């Protein structure tokens, strides 16, 4: 069996295991986005309403369910580092599967996140001035103590979990012809693209990144993973570099048909659009994929489109600024 088919089988198998712990998020029809291009219809996959507030629960449940299925793996325990959606997802999944998990968070992580993580029963260690230090420490601990390191994206089993977003889109919309996805480390798009190409080679996958942090886009252009400094962006969920040797590079290179880069102004407008049009709160990372479609809609005539709205965690002050800016 070819590797694509095998990947799809693994996605379908893991979905049976993890779906009882997930919401089947809606595909919301958007009349305004649909009207941007003749004969196209646009649906927004609301992973921003997924349990823990993002698609990340899928990857964490996938990885931890696999760890929990083996007493040997489970007894090693797991460790991760994140200040955001991945941490919340891991806290949720570790409680469900009874996997002992240590979580390294950078100093200055928001109090509300810490209290949510504690509520979810997370074992927290605050370490380092930013997430990179927390990550290095978590990897160190995994090596010294033999714990399993759970990467937010650089892990095939995490990618298989994220791919279940694609499975749900295809099940509900079998005639989908293009899917827009925000990209950071590439776990979400890598999994989703591999799954959808295995099922229907003709579905177009569009990778979307902010102009301030577009490492995967530049890497695919260069034909290898590159290092590029990231600037400040509203899309904090996708911001940052990609680890050397990341398993997400090849699917991004081989299965993503097109890349769109968006400005901060476009991200902010699309966050406001979701609130104004649909009364939905989304974070900047979700705004990236919506903005990418808005920017290039005229190229998608006659398409049936799904845009993944990947998360909702935006701070009240950032959202307040966006509202003030766009309703002035
Ligand atoms: C809301 C949100 N969207 C997108 C991403 C990027 O996902 P990936 O690193 O799998 O590309 C993240 C990563 O943390 C995220 O939190």
In short:
The chain has helices at residues 3-18, 31-34, 56-68, 71-76, 85-97, 111-119, 131-145, 156-162, 164-172, 187-199, 215-222, 249-255, 264-278, 284-296, 316-327; strands spanning 27-29, 41-46, 78-81, 101-105, 123-126, 148-149, 178-182, 204-210, 258-262, 304-309.
Ligand identities: pyridoxal-5'-phosphate
Number of helices: 15
Weakly predicted, low-confidence segments: none
pLDDT averaged residue by residue: 95
Q: Helix fraction?
A: 40-55%
Tell me the β content. Answer: 5-15%
CATH topology of the largest domain: Rossmann fold
Q: Could you name the CATH class of the largest domain?
A: Alpha Beta
Question: Any guess at the CATH architecture of the largest domain?
Answer: 3-Layer(aba) Sandwich
Provide the spatial order of strands within the biggest beta sheet.
1-2-10-7-8-9
Measure the end-to-end span.
57 Å
Rg estimate, integer Å: 19 Å
Q: What is the total number of structural domains?
A: 2
The major beta sheet can be summarized as: 6 strands, mixed
Cofactor: pyridoxal 5'-phosphate
GO molecular function: L-serine ammonia-lyase activity; pyridoxal phosphate binding; threonine deaminase activity
Pfam families: PALP (PF00291)
Protein name: L-serine ammonia-lyase
């Amino acid at each position: 069996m070819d590797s694509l088919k095998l990947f799809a089988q693994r996605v379908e198998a893991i979905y049976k295991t993890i779906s009882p712990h997930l919401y089947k998020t809606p595909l919301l029809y958007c009349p305004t986005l649909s009207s941007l291009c003749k004969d196209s219809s646009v649906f927004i996959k609301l992973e921003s309403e997924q349990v823990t507030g993002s698609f990340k629960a899928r990857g964490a449940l996938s990885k931890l369910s696999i760890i929990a299925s083996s007493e040997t793996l489970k007894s090693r325990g797991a460790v991760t580092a994140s200040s955001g959606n991945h941490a919340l997802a891991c806290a949720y999944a570790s409680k469900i599967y009874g996997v002992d998990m240590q979580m390294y968070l950078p100093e200055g992580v928001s109090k509300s996140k810490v209290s949510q993580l504690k509520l979810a029963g997370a074992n927290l260690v605050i370490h380092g001035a930013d997430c990179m230090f927390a990550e290095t420490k978590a990897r160190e601990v995994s090596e010294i103590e033999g714990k399993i390191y759970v990467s937010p994206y650089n892990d095939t089993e995490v990618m298989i979990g994220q791919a279940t977003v694609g499975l749900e889109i295809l099940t509900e919309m079998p005639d989908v012809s293009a899917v827009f996805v925000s990209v950071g480390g590439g776990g979400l798009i890598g999994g989703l693209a591999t799954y959808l190409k295995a099922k229907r080679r003709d579905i177009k996958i569009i990778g979307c990144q902010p102009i301030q942090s577009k490492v995967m886009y530049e890497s695919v252009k260069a034909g290898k993973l590159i290092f590029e400094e990231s600037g400040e962006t509203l899309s904090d969920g996708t911001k940052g570099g990609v680890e050397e040797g990341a398993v997400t590079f090849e699917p991004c290179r081989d299965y993503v048909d097109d890349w769109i880069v968006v400005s901060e102004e476009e991200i902010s407008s699309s966050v406001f659009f979701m609130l104004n049009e649909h009364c939905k709160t989304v974070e900047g990372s979700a705004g990236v994929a919506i903005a990418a479609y808005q920017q290039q809609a005229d190229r998608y005539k006659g398409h049936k489109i799904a845009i993944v709205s990947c998360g909702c965690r935006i701070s009240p002050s950032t959202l307040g600024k966006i509202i003030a800016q766009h309703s002035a």
